[in-house]
Amino acid sequence: MPDPSTTSATLATTGAPTPWSEWLVDSLHRPIRQTDRERAALHLIDWLGCAHLGHTTEVGGVLQRWARQQAPGPVWACGYTGNGANVMNGGNDSSGDIGVFGSYGGYGGLQAAEAARWNGSLGSCHELDDVHREAVVHPGDTVIPAALAMAQRQNASAEALLQAVVRGYETGILLGLLSGPRHYDHWYSTATTGVFASAMACASLLGLNKKQTQHALALAGMQAAGVWQCRLEPGLAKQLATGHSAQAGLVAADMAAAGMTGPLSILEGPLGWLQASGGNLDTARAQALLQVPAGSAWRLHQVSFKPWAACRHVHPAIECALHLHAQGLRPEHMASLRLETYAVALSFADQATPQTPLQGKFSLQHGVAWALCHGSFGLEATAPAALVQPDCAALRPRVELVCGQAQEQAYPHRFGARLSVQMQDGRTVAHEVQSVLGDPENPLSPAQVKAKAQTLLQASGWESSAAQQLIQICLALPQRDDSGDGLGDGSGDGLGQGQSLVDGSGQWLGQGLGQGPGQGLGQGPRLEPLWSGLQAKPAASIK
To answer: Per CATH, the architecture of 26-307+439-543 is what?
Structure first.
């Protein structure tokens, strides 16, 4: 570990060290363009599909039982306002009720922080959440739940919400890059960076000034948590960690707004986050990452969308197998199989005999076997019946796993794999993936992201027309106004001046989100028809 006394930030002209949090906050004042907001809306659409489907898992049942203990009365259901409070009015009543998914088959209300925790627990349940490859973080899991809760509570504009998402993603990605592989070895970096990212998104929505935003980051860092033991034992702790990060980030921003202060050198200090968690403390590297030129593109555009319900480290293997299946290769004609990939993938996903759907999502052998047998990898691929499907189960133990030199050298800049199949007739057929489907070099198109969300929403119980309307509502959120950076200077509330999330009737986008009463688009599609459709939506099945 480097000596912390030699790794503090370079001295400012005053002779005092410049906290790395100051560099980070300064970097977020660059312009956010129309294309950035459109991309943020696409990530919102993707997350909504993931989260709604996540609520149909056992996590949804846990959250419902937890929420009953948090509320001062019954957990609010669809249309129930409780104690006469009217949460249809933008979520700004004294009750502070914020919509959450699926309570009692409809909608309920929680305080903003608890709503952030609820929704922050859902995005990763089916391993379909977006991911930044090199930072190895899933920013949508924490940023979007926190931003939605804060946006509804603050009656923010659509522009302010999307800009908060852009800044939150940037923060989480930068800190994932900054902390590096040693941190990821033991820490669940989506959660540990996600609390900073959520705090930044909420600080943006609150319009905090520079110093307040630094304190929000400091207070977030005091709550950063999540170790990888959760992937070695069964349980739902991974979902707890992301939910905590969404909630804690929101609370950190609120506390900073209220005047609470924290250690501004939370990142690089001798007893700070990086020092404590094995992160990279190289000052020159930190400057290169955090002192971003004004015209630099936002890293949101580097985030990958996941096409298959499996750990991202399994995706290159699945894609290789799908290509070989498309060439006509069939398991009954195969003599042996060899998969070359990088060491982290082997560490996360070497499971030849998965016993549960979650283990199936983290099994390279299952990913290869199912794709070769079926030529697809849909939601059914890791269902209990799929794990015992005879042809697939027989093929899994025949998949030899090897750490490939080329793949290891390319990681984490590229997630790659090479699958070689020795056929019974003596031929060897192979396929190599260097940039897996969904990555920036091999992207999912916006139409494919929308189709994915449509599939997930329908799988979670939505009618096709309601899902389509929700997607269109989200696509209408970006506004065409490239003026200003939107970050507060301490003189105002920092809210955007673009499309409001409230329409003329006081309805909130949350109705279209399947969350709860609140605000809607001012200039976009009216939400009353969607709200009526959601009332009739069958309750998602909770396991």
So the answer is: Orthogonal Bundle (1.10)
This prediction's pTM: 0.85
Tokens of 454: 């449509």
Note the pLDDT tens digit of each residue in 210-268.
999 999 999 999 999 999 999 899 999 999 999 999 999 999 999 999 999 999 999 99
The counts of H helices and E strands in the chain are 22, 8
Domain ranges of the chain: 26-307+439-543, 312-433
Question: What pLDDT digit, counting tens, does each position of 291-350 carry?
Answer: 888 889 999 999 999 999 999 999 999 999 999 999 999 999 999 999 999 999 999 999
* Contact yes or no for 206/199 (Cβ under 8 A): no
- Pairing between β-strand 107-110 and β-strand 98-101 as defined by DSSP bridges: antiparallel
Complete DSSP assignment for 391-419: HHHHHGGGEEEEE-HHHHHHTTT---EEE
- How many CB atoms are closer than 10 A to CB 533? 18
- Whole-number Å distance between alpha carbons of 361 and 120: 20
Are the C-beta atoms of 372 and 399 separated by less than 8 Å?
no
Which superfamily is assigned to 312-433 in CATH? 2-methylcitrate dehydratase PrpD (3.30.1330.120)
In order of 251, 308, 450, 460, the CA distances from 225 in angstroms are 15, 28, 33, 30
399-422 pLDDT tens trace = 999 999 999 999 999 999 999 999
Tokens encoding 23: 């560099």
- Other Cβ atoms less than 10 A from the Cβ of 497: the count is 13
**CB 161, CB 508: distance < 8 Å:** no
- Tell me the per-residue pLDDT of 445-469, one tens digit each, with 9 for 90 and over: 999 999 999 999 999 888 898 889 8
Give Cα separations from 7 to 3, 14, 182, 220 (angstroms).
Answer: 7, 18, 17, 22
Residues 434 and 296: beta-carbon distance below 8 Å: no
CA dist list (Å): 192 to 179, 196, 274, 399: 10, 8, 11, 34
Q: How far apart are CA 479 and CA 460, in angstroms?
A: 30
pLDDT band at 168 (very low <50, low <70, confident <90, very high): very high
